Amino acid sequence: MSSPTIPISNPPTLSQPPIATPAFRTFLSRLSISIRQGFSQRRPWYELIDRSSMARPDSISEAATRILKNLSYFKVNYITLLALILAFSLLSHPLSLLALLSLLASWIFLYLFRPSDQPLVILGRTFSERETLGILVVLTIVVIFLTSVGSLLISALMVGFALVCAHGAFRVPDDLFLDDQEPASAGFLSFLGGGASSAAVAAAPAVVARV
């Protein structure tokens, strides 16, 4: 009597991850480091709201001088304030927040960190890199300019900048001293420049590979 034949099945083939995991992890790691380094430059909040240092400027030129000095000193605090205003505006409009997050996820998963040797296939149709980029650009224009997302972001930023300029004009900067290693001309978004550069370096290999 012959022994029963045992069926042999091929092991399942592991599918390729939808995004380039190492590049994505590097991006998140560098972004996290840049944010931590930026927040290490944050000034104490009690200095920002010190009522004894508030005074009305005597002229427009004095107000402009105060704003520039306070921007250099409180730049991280001001950026945090802008971020909170943006977050509050988006959380109060969940549909706009969902649209913005969906747009960001589309760029991340469909283009920036998608493996270059893995074509985009939707409903059985394969899209080239140029077609994918074109669709994402058109989608970005539609979401930002043809929906309430763009007006929401612009209005939130305008409110934030108005608050920053008002505080900077009335906060007397005579008692504020910049660190020796941080020049006064560092700029409002100086520490964000490092974060943007790190993010660009992390995303560069995935983008260059498909060019």
Question: Overview of this structure, please?
Answer:
- It is built from 8 helices and 2 strands, in the order H-H-H-H-H-E-E-H-H-H.
- It has helices spanning 21-39, 45-48, 60-73, 75-91, 94-112, 129-145, 148-170, 190-208, and strands spanning 120-122, 125-127.
- With 211 residues, it is an all-alpha fold.
- It starts with 20 loop residues before the first helix and ends with a helix.
- The longest helix is centred in the C-terminal third of the chain and has 23 residues, at 148-170.
- The relative contact order is 0.18.
- A hairpin with a 2-residue loop joins strand 1 (120-122) and strand 2.
- Helix 3 (60-73) packs across helix 7, helix 4 (75-91) packs antiparallel against helix 7 and helix 5 runs antiparallel to helix 6.
- Strands 1-2 form a two-stranded antiparallel sheet.
Keywords summarizing the entry:
211 residues; mainly alpha; two-stranded antiparallel ribbon; 2 strands; 3% strand
List the helices and strands and how they pair.
Layout: H1 21-39, H2 45-48, H3 60-73, H4 75-91, H5 94-112, E1 120-122, E2 125-127, H6 129-145, H7 148-170, H8 190-208
Antiparallel strand pairs: 1-2
Helix pairs in contact: 1-8, 3-7, 4-7, 5-6
